[in-house]
Specification:
The complex is a heterotrimer. Chain A is an alpha/beta fold. In chain A, helix 4 packs across helix 5 and helix 15 runs parallel beside helix 16. In chain A, a hairpin with a 2-residue loop joins strand 16 and strand 17. Chain B starts with 21 loop residues before the first helix and ends in a 10-residue tail after the last helix. Chain B is built from 14 helices and 4 strands. In chain B, 68% of the residues lie in helices and 2% in strands. In chain B, strand 2 and strand 3 form a beta hairpin. Chain C has a single domain, classed as Orthogonal Bundle (ABC transporter involved in vitamin B12 uptake, BtuC), CATH 1.10.3470. Chain C has a two-stranded antiparallel ribbon. In chain C, helix 3 runs antiparallel to helix 10, helix 4 packs antiparallel against helix 5 and helix 11 runs parallel beside helix 13. The chains are: A alpha/beta, B mainly alpha, C mainly alpha. Chains in contact: A-B, A-C, B-C. At the A-C interface, helix 2 and strand 8 of A face helix 1 and helix 9 of C. Chain A: One of its GO terms (molecular function) is ATP binding. Chain A: Keywords: ATP-binding, Nucleotide-binding, Repeat, Transport. Chain A: This is ABC transporter ATP-binding protein. Chain A: InterPro entries: AAA+_ATPase (IPR003593), ABC_carbohydrate_import_ATPase (IPR050107), ABC_transporter-like_ATP-bd (IPR003439), ABC_transporter-like_CS (IPR017871), P-loop_NTPase (IPR027417).
Chain lengths: 517, 331, 332
């Protein structure tokens, strides 16, 4: 049992390898970082934990110069630094192994390890392969990897590629002439359990000559490999825990914080679900990344699917909208069998989809609010084959008012609206036709601030009350629990368990996490 | 039938303020401003330029270019490009010249139909095989040129009796060339159809953000195929105009119209990245290009500079109209 | 999301069947050769084989250039214009019937440098003005043709330079000098691709440009340099055509741009970049030449050549794209 450590003054003992004080970063409509403090001691493995949207990724990007903070300071071995680029960060001895692996697939491992800093391996633009091989071998030896330096990177396994990445990041040692700080962003998400063990051994080994920041959403891993954990919540550091003897439950409580009793999820507005024939009934659905999915959603019911990155839940959702191909299984809507070869078929069947990537997939930025809203349900704005401008204007204005969308006018390009209002327009797209039966919400509140989230939640409740069936992929576990009537837990492409989630009988996040990993 | 009605919107429509900002309006008129400036410059260089006769000649020269550019603009609006238009027009001149003796008046609709079908085939290849449009149409260009060479025996095909297409070479009210009037009609017709139907939204959405358009249930594939089809039909119609003027068809007759057509589209301000632009812009662009072509000799520049000018125009205009925010990595 | 996951997925299947793909073009070449040899006695004659190899010379040089551009994932449509300009330049600088110049090798060097400059122009338009390469090079091609037309000035320059003329006529070990020049170009291209930073980075840019940027590599100079290198190859190609024709023509490069793309693609270079190389392209060049020559030998009209190339390109690109298809992937 450990207690969140009191923040000690940093004057004692050796200077921290890396220190962050009061880091602030605003994005339009969202405060991603709200005064984050962080200390990484020398030869320490620091864990960084936090829910989605807690500010982890923004913080990491700031540490390697990909994001310029609006305020706050970063200190490297006691000296304040400004990091403008990855190269800048590398010069100060900070390097990151990215979540999306960042190796050039068609180059050799050796080239990747030395990329951008070939030194004596390239003289006057001419490669000296023997030198390159030797230098790369030295790096690989340092981490005890047996990979052939001249193997093409895309012929290596994921685990091997990660070793190459670590070897590559360690090159910054030569640049800064100091023990480096290595950031590992979700390094385990693509690895098998045996590979994870190897990685952890590697991390412990790294501690001998470097400091490590380890980021993972798997709390047991964080506790296993780290010396200390800093927890982020809503862009702030809310606590530090020494891992010796700590348990995941405690960390999780800090990550979530107290939700309070302000009915953030409008649970009072939740309506009981009539137990009749399900609106959506999926049996044995299989695709590339998911197998044998059974799923029932009744009219007016909100069903959340939870799972870690790579659990396949996004693909299930996309399969229900005709984007991801399926290999087996059937989908029934109100008892009628559906075939969904494309998104048009899904739209015609009364299915709506709000994608996670709002700016890329959700909306057409330069087009007006009105056009974005009426893009799908053309009938609602047309008379015969022709667009009826008055009908469209009336319709759009009514929905702008109905959903209290704050926009200068219906002809304003949607990209000028705030995130929350953009999301409301995207939602309205499915409602203007009046024929929506099933809504698939993929991270509907991603990147929204608290007020906008609350409005989206209220809208979801109203839609449910009017009989729309909803499948929700929550932005956080908390959101899923708060909104859903029922929760399906997915792990590795399969539904592992189903949990009832009624008002007053909500499951605890930890019970769900247990099933997820 | 239990179609649920999600939520009843409030009955009272709110009135919204609308309209683009003044700055946007101004950039929207850029091709027009360029056009007026060009006319003014040419008039200063040669006072005789602003006569009915020379203006008529400009309109007549511009007609095939307008039609060609108008069709290809649709493809560009969808975010693609059609490099085959000129080769397709060349092939169509050959086909028309060959078919006129047999089909007479029916030859014109027949060749336009064939051209539209060829365009559609390229569209289908682009959509189904997922090949970038410029490669499909580059390959198409090569194939169509080969077909034109083979069909024509690599020579000019004379039209003995051109009465079925002669009407295009007449003048309306004595001054307005029929071909130019028809070109305007084509542009107006396509623009009108786009405006009063959902097509406009569909095309813009496809061009601006194809994935968002697809996820909104827009028939992206059909829209693209349709755009290529219309582009082909327009190339066919441009070919009819060429034949009516030159009394012959040739396997490379329209090939030198590709660069001017692309230049007309980008000079008009239609973004090569898709979404932003219009047919009217390409109309203005086609006039700008034609004026440059006609005007160079007037101001005493050898016509060899024409090509260089097209090259510079294309590069500069694309750079100016490109939506830089949209493309992080330019290949 | 879709885009990145698409990339990740395509990387995963990158190696699957790579051996098949590398072996495919040479096998196709052999099969094609045997088929034509069986069909036509003229085709399998020594003279015809010499013809094929000699006719491939210019295309091989142009393809060397374009391969580097394609490896980056860009495309180059400027070969025709650049070759026209360099053909006129060289024919006016070596001994000719239009002026008293007789610069010999220096004239050839100037033509190559001019091609290099045009390539630079394309590259700069790409990295500074952010004009997509197919548009930038289309523009540069027009500029090249315009420059060539200006130099042509209505009178065809016939070259009298003995050395340049001999390139196309004189033979060494049964092959024309031009063929040996092409072979040298392939060797140089291969060395560049294998042993220089320029070549490896061009390859890497096609593989994952964003990773290079993240690793602190400034990719822009390399992109410009690759286009310049390609331009130099086109310039040399223009010189070689001039040697063949004995005169400088504006249309010297007609069709070479597309044939070169065909050859590279058939050889196994992906238009999306990051795969293929000079040796692949060399096989592609011979494949295209065998195909076009063979078709003529069995009685197909030579006018179909372009059509056959067009079909091959579309088919080859489609075949390369099929394993990477995803439903919501954007193809422009």
């Amino acid at each position: 049992m450990s207690v969140p450590a009191e923040r000690e003054p940093t004057t004692s003992a050796p200077v921290p390898a890396l220190e962050v004080r009061g880091l602030v970063k605003h994005y339009p409509g969202v405060k991603a970082l709200d005064g984050v403090d962080l200390v990484v001691h020398q030869h320490e493995v620091l864990g960084l934990a936090g829910e989605n949207g807690a500010g982890k990724s923004t913080l990491l990007k700031a540490l390697v110069g990909l994001v310029t903070p609006d305020a706050g300071e970063i200190y490297v071995r006691g000296g304040a630094v400004k990091l403008r680029s990855v190269v800048d960060a590398a010069d100060h001895g900070i390097g990151m192994v990215f979540q999306e692996q960042s190796l050039v697939p068609n180059l050799t491992a050796a080239e990747n390890i030395l990329l951008g800093g070939e030194g004596p391996a390239v003289r006057r633009g001419v490669y000296r392969w023997d030198v390159m091989r030797r230098l790369a071998q030295e790096q690989l030896d340092k981490i005890g990897s047996k990979i052939d330096p001249l193997a093409r990177t895309d012929s290596l396994s994921f685990a091997d590629r990660q070793m190459v990445e670590i070897a590559k990041v360690l090159r910054i040692e030569q640049r800064s002439q100091h023990p480096p700080v290595i950031i590992l962003d979700e390094p385990t998400s693509v690895l098998e359990s045996k590979e994870i063990e190897t990685l952890f051994a590697q991390i412990r080994r790294l501690r001998e000559f470097a400091s490590v920041v380890f980021v993972s959403h798997r709390l047991d891993e964080v506790l296993d490999v780290c010396d200390r954990v800093t927890v982020l919540r809503s862009g702030q550091s809310v606590g530090e825990v020494a891992t010796a003897g700590a348990v995941p439950r405690e960390l999780h409580r800090m990550m979530i914080g107290s939700t309070g009793s302000d009915d953030h999820y409008h649970e009072n507005a939740a309506t009981p679900v009539a137990a009749e024939q399900p609106r959506l009934s999926v049996r044995g659905l299989s695709g590339k990344s998911f197998q044998d999915i059974d799923l029932d959603v009744a009219a007016g019911e909100i069903v959340a699917i939870v799972g870690v990155h790579g659990s396949g839940r996004e693909d299930v959702c996309r399969a229900l909208f005709g984007i991801e191909p399926t290999t087996a299984g059937e989908i029934r809507m109100d008892g009628k069998k559906l075939s969904l070869p494309n998104t048009r078929a899904a739209c015609a069947a009364g299915i709506g989809y709000v994608p996670a990537e709002r700016k890329i997939e959700g909306m057409v930025g330069p087009m007006s609010v009105a056009e974005n809203m009426t893009l799908t349900k053309q009938k609602a704005r047309c008379a015969g084959p022709f667009v009826a401008p008055k009908k469209q204007a009336g319709l759009v204005d009514r929905w702008i008012e109905r959903l209290s969308i704050r926009t200068p006018g219906r002809d304003t390009p949607i990209q000028r609206l705030s995130g929350g209002n953009q999301q409301k327009v995207v939602l309205a797209r499915w409602l203007v036709g009046g024929d929506i039966r099933l809504l698939l919400l993929d991270h509907p509140t991603r990147g929204l601030d608290i007020g906008a989230r609350s409005e989206v939640y209220r809208l979801m409740r109203e839609l449910a009350a009017s009989g729309v069936a909803t499948v929700l992929l929550g932005d956080s576990l908390e959101e899923a629990i708060g909104m859903a009537d029922r929760i399906l837990v997915m792990n590795d492409g399969r539904v592992v368990t189903e949990v009832a989630c009624p008002n007053g009988g909500k499951p605890s996040p930890l019970d769900l996490v247990k099933e997820m990993v | 039938m239990s179609t649920p009605v999600a939520m009843q919107p409030v009955a009272e429509p709110a009135t919204g303020r609308t309209g683009p900002r003044p700055a946007q309006r101004l950039t929207g008129f850029m091709p027009l401003i360029a056009l007026v400036a060009l006319v003014a410059a040419l008039t200063i260089a040669d006072p005789d330029f602003l006569t009915a006769r020379s203006l008529t000649a400009v309109a007549r020269t511009a007609a095939p270019l307008i039609v060609l550019a108008a069709g290809a603009t649709l493809v560009v609006l969808c975010g693609g490009i059609d490099l085959s238009i000129a080769a397709l027009a060349s092939l169509t001149t050959v086909l028309l010249a060959l078919w006129l003796p047999h089909l007479g008046g029916l030859a014109t609709p027949a060749v336009i139909g064939v051209a539209a079908a060829i365009g559609a085939v390229q569209g289908v290849a682009h959509v189904l095989l997922r090949i970038p449009s410029f490669i499909v149409t580059l390959g198409g260009m090569s194939i169509l040129s080969a077909v034109a060479l083979v069909v024509s025996g690599a020579g000019t095909v004379r039209v003995v009796d051109d009465s079925p297409v002669a009407w295009l070479d007449l003048y309306l009210a004595g001054y307005v060339p029929m071909s130019a009037a028809m070109a305007l009609l084509v542009v107006a017709l396509i623009a009108l159809v786009l405006k009063v139907t959902p097509l406009q939204s569909w095309i813009s959405a496809t061009g601006y953000s194809e994935s968002a358009a697809r996820l909104a249930g827009t028939p992206v594939d059909l829209v693209k195929i349709g755009a290529f089809c219309v582009s082909g039909a327009c190339a066919g119609f441009a070919a009819v105009m060429l034949v009516s003027r030159q009394f012959s068809g040739g396997p490379t007759m329209a090939d030198n119209l590709l660069l001017p057509a692309v230049a007309a589209i980008v000079v008009g301000g239609t973004a090569i990245t898709g979404g932003h632009g219009s047919l009217w812009r390409s109309l203005a662009g086609a006039f700008v290009v034609t004026l440059l072509r006609v005007g160079l000799p007037i101001v005493g520049v050898p016509s060899a500079y024409e090509q260089i000018l097209y090259g510079v125009i294309i590069v500069v205009a694309v750079a100016l109209t490109l939506d830089w925010s949209k493309v992080s990595i330019i290949k | 999301m879709t885009v990145t996951s698409g990339v990740a997925a395509s990387r995963r299947i990158f190696r699957r069947g790579a051996a098949f793909r590398d072996a495919g073009p040479p096998v196709a070449l052999v099969v094609l050769f045997l088929i034509f040899a069986a069909l036509s006695p003229q085709f399998r004659s020594i003279e015809n084989v010499q013809n094929i190899v000699d006719a491939a010379a210019v295309l091989a040089v142009v393809t060397c250039g374009i391969t580097f551009v394609l490896m980056m994932g860009s495309i180059d449509l400027s070969a025709a214009g650049v070759m026209g300009a360099s053909a006129l330049t060289v024919s006016l600088l070596v001994a000719n019937n239009r002026n008293d110049n007789d610069f010999g090798l220096a004239g050839i060097a100037v033509a190559v440098v001019l091609g290099c400059a045009f390539g630079c122009l394309s590259g700069l338009a790409l990295v500074l003005l952010k004009v997509p390469s197919f548009m930038a090079t289309l523009g540069v091609s027009a500029i090249g043709l315009g420059v060539a037309t200006l130099m042509f000035a209505g009178v065809q320059p016939n070259i009298t330079d003995a050395m340049l003329k001999s390139w196309a006529i004189e033979r060494f070990l049964g092959l024309s000098y031009l063929t040996w020049i092409a072979a040298a170009c392939i060797l140089v291209g291969w060395l560049i691709q294998r042993y220089t930073r320029l070549g490896r980075y061009a390859f890497a840019i096609g593989g994952a440009e964003e990773v290079l940027t993240l690793s602190g590599v400034k990719v822009k100079p390399y992109k410009v340099a690759v286009f310049a290198l390609a331009g130099a190859f086109y310039g040399l190609g223009g010189v070689m055509v001039t040697s063949q024709l004995g005169a400088g023509l504006v249309q010297a490069g007609n069709g070479y741009d597309f044939s070169a793309i065909t050859a590279a693609v058939v050889g196994g270079t992906l238009l999306t970049g990051g795969r293929g190389g000079i040796l692949h392209s060399a096989v592609g060049v011979v494949l295209v030449m065998v195909l076009t020559n063979g078709l003529v030998q069995v009685g197909v009209s030579p006018y179909w050549q372009g059509g056959v190339e067009g079909l091959i390109v579309v088919a080859a690109v489609a075949a390369a794209v099929i394993p990477q298809r995803r439903r919501n992937q954007v193809v422009k």
